[in-house]
């Protein structure tokens, strides 16, 4: 969904039914605003999140929650945002 001129906020409801989603790439949509939805943490198959060049906030909280809540997992999640690219313990 990158480079699609998306705007507005992402809600928890948007991701609630996408249990098998493996990758979220909404990069280069500068009009997306608000916080990163908490429901992204509940996607057990997620391995890639790219929210670079968006107006989203809360990456530090999201990354901390993923790392703290799932540190025993062997699966990794790649998270990319402005000035931040890190592989975190997975879900």
Radius of gyration: 12 Å
User: How many distinct helices?
Assistant: 2
* Spatial separation of the terminal alpha carbons: 23 Å
In order across it, which strands form the biggest sheet?
2-4-6-7
Q: How much is the average pLDDT?
A: 77
Give the proportion of residues in helices: 10-25%
Structural class: alpha/beta
List unreliable stretches of 5+ residues: none
What is the number of domains?
1
Main sheet characteristics: 4 strands, mixed
Beta-strand share of residues: 35-45%
Shape: globular
Element order, helices and strands?
EHEEEEHEE
Number of strands: 7
Features:
single chain, 91 residues, alpha/beta, 18% helix, globular
Map the helices and strands.
Elements: E1 7-9, H1 12-16, E2 23-25, E3 29-35, E4 48-50, E5 54-57, H2 59-69, E6 76-81, E7 84-89
Parallel strand pairs: 1-3, 2-4, 3-5, 4-6
Antiparallel strand pairs: 6-7
In short:
By secondary structure, this protein is α/β, with parallel strands linked by helices. The chain has helices at residues 12-16, 59-69; strands at 7-9, 23-25, 29-35, 48-50, 54-57, 76-81, 84-89.
Describe the protein in words.
It contains two helices and seven strands, in the order βαββββαββ. The strands form two sheets. The chain has a four-stranded mixed sheet, covered by helices on one side. Strands 1-3-5 form a three-stranded parallel sheet, with no helix packed on it. It is globular. The relative contact order is 0.21.
């Amino acid at each position: 969904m990158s480079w699609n001129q998306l705007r507005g906020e992402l809600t928890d409801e948007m991701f609630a039914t996408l249990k098998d989603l493996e990758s979220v790439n909404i990069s280069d949509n500068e009009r997306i605003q608000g916080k990163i939805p908490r429901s992204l943490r509940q996607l057990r198959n997620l391995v890639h999140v790219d929210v670079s060049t968006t107006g989203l906030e809360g990456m530090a909280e999201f990354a901390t929650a993923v790392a703290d809540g799932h540190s025993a997992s062997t699966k990794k999640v790649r998270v990319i945002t402005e000035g931040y690219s890190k592989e975190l313990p997975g879900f």
